[in-house]
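Record type: monomer structure entry
Structure origin: computed from sequence
Chain ID: A
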Amino acid sequence: MPELRFGAHVGQQNLTFDTLRATWRQLDEAGLDWISAWDHFYEAPPAGGTQPHFEALATLGALAADTKQARIGCLVFYVGYRNPALLAKAATTLDHISGGRFELGLGAGWHHWEATAYGYDFPDLGTRLDMLDEATALIRQMLSEDRTSFEGRHYRTEDASCLPRPLQQRLPIWIGGVGEKRTLRLVARHADGWNAAYVSPAEFARLSGVLDGWCRTEQRDPTTIRRGVNLSFHLGLDAADAERELARMRADWGPMVARVHEGALTGTPAEAVATVAAYLDAGATDVNVALRAPWNERALEVYLTECVPALRERFGKPA
């Protein structure tokens, strides 16, 4: 079984860049295995572009330079925002900045409000999944072969090189999403890791079983795919504090709260350990807390210094 990893998915919104950098250093020094950003132009959950938000690729350059130990990445880049050959070049650059710690996440996107605002086409889901299929295949070639000539419906390259090569012999590619018919098959076909956001432990286990089935179809060893989950962080220090965090989650997400509620880390630290353990028992190899400012800083500290070490000890990895 792959080594278990604990991480943080940090939204680069509603905070200064100095605060963002201090947060990364805190997480890295606390021994987290993974730190990621997300790929949005507007805030998430959507609020009409009313909240300050930094762009992902530029943000990742600073994250790569500021950290020393954690693996880093983006969960996930929407392939409709950047030419995939450019993303391959950026991934290689970030791998060098980070000293070989970068992992590339790709997805079909969902934030149509920001796409429309910034003048990007946002086609139907089937087309976006076709784009994801092409983009992932093209990027893998760019990262692993000397020259790439690719002719697809959406993307093309002509005898393209991507030099220097990544520091890693195989730079990992993740695909994010929970679509059973297309997305999970693309994971089985192309990816080194699969990430699901805001699903319950039972749903994570069920989807993981669907992925196993697609691995059989694609003649892929399912144990070669890491399986990660993002949990919206709303932990409190006691019952009253936890209830305030739940109220904040409802206020932040409004009518979209059902999307994240079952996959949120809520309650007290003791309850958080039990929740994360349920995901690990369900087959997760990577558990990331998704942080949206403002978060409960004391609760985050307890999670890092008490919950994660307890989970490492319980599941066989020393703190």
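Annotation 1: The chain has a mean pLDDT of 96.
Annotation 2: The first strand starts at residue 5 and ends at 10.
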